[in-house]
Structure formats: C-alpha cells, structure tokens
Write a structure and sequence with these properties.
The complex is a heterodimer of chains A (100) and B (248). Chain A has 100 residues and is an all-alpha fold. Chain A is built from six helices and no strands. Chain A has one domain. Classes of the chains: A mainly alpha (100), B mainly alpha (248).
Amino acid sequence: MEAADPFQFVCDRLGERVQLDRLALRGAVRLALKAAGFEARGVQPSEMAVVVTRMLPKELASCGVSDPEAHCARLAAEVSGLGARAGAESPDAVFRRLGG
Amino acid sequence: MGLPLDLFVLLATIAYVVVGLAVGVRLLRLARRTGAFPELALGLAECLLAGAVPPLFIVAQVVSEPEALVRGAAFLGHLAYTVGCAVMILFTWRVFRPEAGWARVLVYAAIGVLSAGGLLGMLRTLLVPDLAALRDPQTTAFLVMEWVSLVGFFWTAGEAFHHHGRLRKQRALGLADPVVVNRVLLWGVVGLGGVAAAGAPVVASLLGASVSTHVPTRLVCALATVVSSVAIQLAFLPPASYLRWVRA
C-alpha cells in the first residue's frame, strides 16, 4: 500500500476530473476538512475517506461541480486504499492512552 | 467567614493533593511502561504541583521550628513549583504544538523566566534572615512564577478547548471516541482552574491586597482547586458509571 498525503492525493485526483482551478479546488477540500474538524496536515486516509464522502460533495456543489456525489464516492474508495501516515502522535491519541 | 473559609480551603487542598497524587502516580507508572513523554510530563506535573507544592508550602507557613525544616520546605516548594510548571508547559507544547516554531519560542522563554524566578525564590529561602520574611507569599520571585504559570495554564486551556471543538465535529461523523472528546474538554477545565488559581493571587497583588488574607482570592483559589480536582479525577481516573454516561 502506498503511503501518501491524503489531502494532496484528493486534490490531485479531483484536479484531473473536474473543471475547477487549483486554488478553488484546494479551498473546497480544506473547507470540507475544517467542517469535519481536521486539518490538511495530519489527516489519515480513513478519515479523509469519510470527509470526502460526507462533507466534500456540498463544497464541490457550491463551486458548481456537477454530480459531486459520484466524484466523491470514487475518490473515497481510492483514498481509503492509501497506507496510514506516520508522524507526530495526535493529541487525541495521547489523551486516549492517558485515560488508561 | 474565617472558620468556614479556612475549613473549605483545607478540604479543597486535601482533595487536590489526594487526587493529584493518585493521578500523578498512575501516569508515572504508565510512563514507565510506555516510555512516552506526555505521561511522564503530566505525571510529574500532577505529583509536583498537586502532591508536593501545597503540603510543602503549608509546612513553610505553619511550622515554626526547627528553622531548617521551614527553610527546607520553602526551598523544595519553590523547586517543585518551578519544575511542575515547566513540565506542564512542555506537555502542552509536545502534545498540541510539537512542530510550531512560535510554540518552541514561547516554551523556551517561559521556562527561562520561570527558572530565573524559581532560582531567585530558592536562594531567598536560604538567605532571608527571619522566618516572617521567608513566609511572605508576595515576593517578586513568586509573582514571576505565578505570571508564567498563569500564561502556561491559559495556553493549556486554549489548546484543549480548541482541540475539543475539532473533536466534537469529528465525533458528529463517528470519527472520535466520546470518552476522549470529553477527556480533552475536562483537560481544558483543569487549565481554566489553573488560570483562576494562578490568576487570583496575581490580581490580588496588583490590587495591593494580601494574598494570604484576602477573602475573594482565597475563595477563588479554593473553588478553582475543587473544580480542577473533580476534572482531573473524571479525566484520568473516571468511575465506570461516568464513562457509561459519557458514552451514552
């Protein structure tokens, strides 16, 4: 399995499939992440898949992208196949462990 | 109001010491197993700030002799306060902002000022000629330490509440454990308790009131201590019934 940046992966794939300039597209993905309580840096593929399914269609629709649900369903399946990212331990992982 | 307030302060302090020690020791045991920094830092902070500082300063305030015991307790109290605040600030940095350059600068500056205040306070406990002066809680050294503590707890509360806001959104999507979401909220409450407990003496000093006799200051500190004790207990040693309630 490939270990890639899920944010970058989603932006790259969407850029190949929809008629939207790069800044608007990245902005839409960032807004979807923010609405779900994530940041582009540190989001895991499994989390990104849920964000793409649940939050991104609305953002793409507001940018005028047609049939956003279909794009997002395909994208979610692809991003969930990425390998988990290594990196600094998240605060919630720390607090989960501290609870015993 | 003297006796009821004294009793309330005493009971609040005892609860804080007991809960802080229980949580601190549990976290230090966890740190021994995992070798991870957050539990080590938080365990040390709880053992020192809750378990050691209040008893040591009570001894310094109440016991009259032998003088070496009083000076030793005051010295160790300053040392425990300094190290406890430092590891609490390090915890917030390493857990919430490990990669932020501004946070690194803030941590270095805060620990530098805190260490200077702590060293000054420790030197003072050895050098002041009489015990009455030794017991003065409104020294420059102690005020410096309280200011840094205030900033540290304010930062801790801010980071915890900010992260809690994000976790609530994640929880709505089924991506966060409700117990962890609640634990982060409780940690923010502990931070607020620290802000109140460190801030009240600072405000009293700015108003020219005596920290040790000013009723509103003592009341705020005692209430903050009670709130912090409850929040620490529920966050790190929660009863099963509380966890069931949170999950429901």
